[in-house]
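Title: Prediction job returns without error message
Component: structure pipeline
Severity: low
Priority: P3
Assignee: unassigned

Description:
Job completed but the reporter wants confirmation the result is attached to the right record. Sequence as submitted:
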Amino acid sequence: MRILPVVRQILQMTPSPLPVPPLRGLYLITPDEPDTERLLDRVRAVLGHAALLQYRNKTADAALRHRQMAALLPLCRAAGVPLIANDYADLAIAIGADGVHLGEDDGDPAAVRARLGANAIIGVSCYDDLALARAAAAAGASYIAFGAFFPSSTKPNARRASLDLLRDSAELRLPRVAIGGITPDNARGLVASGADLLAVISGVFDAPDPPAAARAYRAAFESTAPEFPT
C-alpha cells in the first residue's frame, strides 16, 4: 500500500505554522477587497514591511473569507509574516493560520487558546478599557489592542482611547497594539508612549504609494526602543 507516501506528500504541501516572532512593528490589516487576485497583489506589494498581517473583510461571505485567507497563507509563509484571522477562530483553524484577533463579542480568549493551541497568536481588542486588558492578559492573550486613538474612516464611531492606556498597560508585560486613524505623522507619539504594533488599513492600502507608506510607518520604530523585551 502507498498510503504513507501520499499522506507525507499532503503534509509537505500544507504550510506549517510559524514560530511566534517578537511582536513589534507594522500590523497590516487587509482592506475589504472582493477580488481575491487584486487582494493578493495589494498585500504582496507591502507584506515585506509587516510584522503581522490580519485578514479582515467585513463585506465577504464565509466562502469568500475562506478562499481569500487560504490564498494569503502561502504569501505569509514565504514572507515569514504570521497571518491572523479577524474574529473567526473556526476560519483560523480551518486553514492553519497563526492566530485570531478577538473583539469583545468574539469569544473568551482562554477558550479560543484551548482550541488553537499554546503557540497561537491571540489578540484581544480592549478599546479604551484597562480592565479589559487585564482580563485579556489573565486569559492568555498574546497581545492587547487599544483604540481608536484618532478619528478613523474604518470605524468612525469607535470609542476613543488615550495615550495613558499605553503607558498604564505596560504593567501587563504584553505587546500593545494601537489602532485607529494612525498616520506616519502621529505614529511616533504612539510608539513613544508604549505601542509595540501600529495597526493600519487605509493608511497603507489606500495610500498613493503603499510600499512607501509602509516604510514610513516602520520608521516610527527605528529610534524608539521597546519598553520591555517582547
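Comment from assignee: result matches the submitted record. Confidence is low (pLDDT under 50) at residues 1-14.
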